[in-house]
What does this fold into?
Amino acid sequence: MAARKGSAPKLGDVLLVTGAESFLADRAVRSAIAAVSKGNVAVSKSNSEVEVTDLDASTLDVGVFAELTGPSLFATERVLVLRALENLPSEMAAHLIEYAGAPSDDVLVVLVHSGGQKGKGVLDKLRKASVNEVVATAPKAWELPQFVAGEIRLLGGSVDEGAASALVDAVGHDLRALAGACSQLVSDSGGQAVTAELIGQYFGGRAEVTSFAVADAAIAGRTEPALEQLRWALDCGVAPVLVTSAMAGGLRGLAKYASASGGMRDADLAREVGVPPWKLKQLKQQSRGWTPGGLAAAIKAVAQADADVKGASGDVGYALERMVLTVTRAHGRR
It folds into this structure.
């Protein structure tokens, strides 16, 4: 799970977020921004009290970095998020490490590294500079009920150990899916404890099969089976957020697998991609027929569907069907 070294992030800090569990890493980034902004953030708006810039580290150069961390004419307080730190251009490493030793007082810099050996030299030097660090490590299977209980408590609800285990059995091991299920259950429990009966009513032990079956069929480019699985999932009462979460997780793993360096050992490749070793065979099969352009289109469609099912659309079923059709059509796209 996410482990923090040091105090809560503040302006003038450099925060390092490391680890392959993207859900926990994303949460650490959001928490850091919230700690600085106190909930009053407008991304890339110069007239906001706190200005947030979110970039891929591979795009960084000396001029951009100096502009984003130097004195600002428009915002007194800023957050710079650099993702995929492992892809930082080699010529930028010295500049970043120098900055970490003497950061600007009105900027919080958040550096996100997805784990693995790539870029380890930069990580070691940043740690020597005494930056704060959050380690996003996926919980072990036996720890997942504790994760569920913590999520539900965080949302203001309560759950016993048996019910927490029942939710893991019903939804599976994807942290985004579990967090989404916890949110829905607490929201709909009316202030009462989340019980195994309520979990059975919502998920019926079939969520793991149906939501991931939709994702697997769509990622394989099989339109009709994917739509059939989707309709069955919705008829069974599977929460729409679980469908988008399963699809996002599948495509995210596929994208990481496709971009990983060749010739790696299975253990290292699994760590780089953020999946258990046994799943590499499935990813290898799924990667056939996918191109970078197709993956980008599919990921964009899932992000839109996720926003739709969380309130941006009045027709959730249509939003999910559109997502499935877009993903299956993106398979094999040049």
The beta strands are 2-5, 14-18, 41-43, 50-56, 77-83, 107-113, 132-136. The first strand starts at residue 2 and ends at 5. The two ends are 38 Å apart (CA to CA).
